[in-house]
């Protein structure tokens, strides 16, 4: 059984409490959108599970959105379809109803990933596309030096990609998605070459892992990163990232076909 918070959120994050700053820091990035579109292929009827405010939904497809959090549903722009209040683990659709299905930046929050993905497979005839982070790679990022707790939390929350693939069955691929230097979707690695931007608490708040970090961890992160930016220590070691057009980190697309 799924437990819901006051705004309907399930899983480990209360989206009503995270706040509306999310919308300005988590805008879909058009370069990442191309990878998602390619993975969906020519599918017309597409299911988006954990759809949030509708990032990466294309007007060129008939999208059905599922989103349990009322505050997230309310953030959907008027041009998009209204999201259905349901959870991945119990999808209110018939077998094979969709050409393709996607779930983006969401599986790490589900209470039962295996059941949720089996549901997605059940209702989809074509590809199921998951945009997520590979937990084996999340600590290979400079942020680990300054906020290890946050990336330890990320590494624990993200399901291993093999588990995702096994739950879906069939044939699957894992593709690294390069993160652009000016990425508009503010997950942690989006700031790989712009460390100063992560000093803004609102930017961090838009990444749910930070909501699990305590005040001590946040204060230490702020103090030590500021210090290393001022002294030039960060740039000595990581400054090459400021000019790198893309970063191949932990962001991946898992794509499974029956
Ligand atoms: C980080 S947001 C991502 C939203 C959107 N996909 C995007 O890329 O902007 C994760 C979303 O997954 C939803 N979610 C969490 N657990 C879920 C579940 N069990 N079933 C469906 N959606 C869930 C949350 O309510 C939240 O809106």
TrEMBL record:
InterPro entries: Methyltransf_11, SAM-dependent_MTases_sf
Domain Methyltransferase type per the UniProt entry, residue ranges: 47-124
Top-rank lineage group of the source organism: Bacteria
Disordered: annotated span: 1-22
Pfam families: Methyltransf_11 (PF08241)
Coiled-coil segments: none
One MF annotation (Gene Ontology) recorded for this entry: S-adenosylmethionine-dependent methyltransferase activity
Record's protein name: Methyltransferase type 11 domain-containing protein
The species this protein was found in: Streptomyces filipinensis
